[in-house]
């Protein structure tokens, strides 16, 4: 556990003990007999366990999943979308997609080819001004995606693989140091792209009507309904400012090339 | 459908519209629901948001929206479908 934290969080500034913290989280052993023959780990949020314990081997993935849970359940000054977000040249691509669509794999490839990582999991769009707030944390990869990205970028730093989790085999890729340094730089969304990995498919970027994109992004939001009219307005402003596409791909290099050629719409600021 | 009945939106302050091209997104702050509507249905809803309307005046609006020569009975089934759909979405009601 400490090895993975040391490896993947080495570039983050440490908060002082007296600094304000939004959440206090910890990992501990549950008080049960399994501690002695099949040890488990328990995630605590402000001292309360929101989940059942997992096998001790899954401690680091549990920390990452727990941190995502903390944010997705408590950060309501932002419209939150289940999406990867990357940025280049001051414009961000939001990639909403369900698990298994290749979102995190594509995100990992992009951030290893010059795009800034905002998040591989949560797009945080401020209700106050529509800007995207970065949340650069380790990129969660699973199953075949782990070795695909290892081969794609041999210098990428990974936590060790953890097998037999609820998501299969998982490993986390360290966020680029530059993305961590720029963690307070908010950015304007310029594209909403729904990625879909399809074996053997030719890379294809297909324009999507903005109204349809609105409904699909809302379907991928954690708190659109909770935010009420503010959620609707924030979403409408995001879609207004964005070009929207469906994107099918099978080769990462093709995807990088297509993303590199994206141009924001003329009215984007 | 009785032509002297009037239709109205359930709450004129609750509906919020945003359009892209020929499609409208309508947010109903009473229910929290969001709907994707085509242009014709949205224009009828916008008319009802301005003021309650009877079937005949809505049929006239539909004629102009569809830019068709069809009148009255010929358009009735289409208008009935639109009104029933909007009613089922809890966006409008009979007065």
Structure write-up:
The complex is a heterodimer of chains A (269) and B (95). Chain A is of the alpha+beta class and 269 residues long. Helix content of chain A is 32%, strand content 28%. Chain A has a domain at 77-260: Rossmann fold. Chain A has ten helices and 14 strands. Chain A is globular. Chain B is α+β, with helices and mostly antiparallel strands. Chain B has one domain (6-94). Helix content of chain B is 39%, strand content 28%. Chain B has three helices and six strands, in the order ββββαβααβ. Chain B has helices at residues 39-50, 55-66, 76-88; strands at 6-9, 15-20, 23-28, 33-38, 53-54, 92-94. In chain B, strands 5-1-6 form a three-stranded antiparallel beta sheet. In chain B, α1 packs across α2. The model of chain B has no long low-confidence stretch (mean pLDDT 90). The A-B interface holds A 209-212, 214-215, 218, 224-225, 228-229, 232-233, 236, 239 and B 16, 18-21, 23-25, 27, 29, 32, 34, 36.
Kindly summarize this structure in a few lines.
Chain A is an alpha+beta fold and 269 residues long. Chain A has helices spanning 2-8, 34-37, 59-74, 103-111, 144-152, 177-181, 210-219, 224-227, 229-240, 252-260; strands at residues 25-28, 40-45, 54-55, 78-88, 91-96, 116-119, 122-126, 132-133, 139-142, 162-165, 168-173, 188-197, 204-207, 243-249. In chain A, strands 4, 5, 6, 7, 8, 12, 13 and 14 form an 8-stranded mixed sheet that branches. In chain A, strands 1-2-3 form a 3-stranded antiparallel sheet, covered by helices on one side.
Structural class label of chain B? alpha+beta
Q: Mind telling me the C-alpha Rg of chain B?
A: 13 Å
Overall mean confidence score, pLDDT of chain A? 94
CATH topology of the domain at 77-260 in chain A: Rossmann fold
Approximate helicity band of chain A? 25-40%
Shape of chain A: globular
What fraction of residues of chain B sit in β-strands?
25-35%
According to DSSP, the number of beta strands of chain B is 6
Averaged pLDDT of chain B? 90
Mind summarizing the main beta sheet of chain B?
Answer: 3 strands, antiparallel
Tell me which oligomeric state these chains represent.
heterodimer
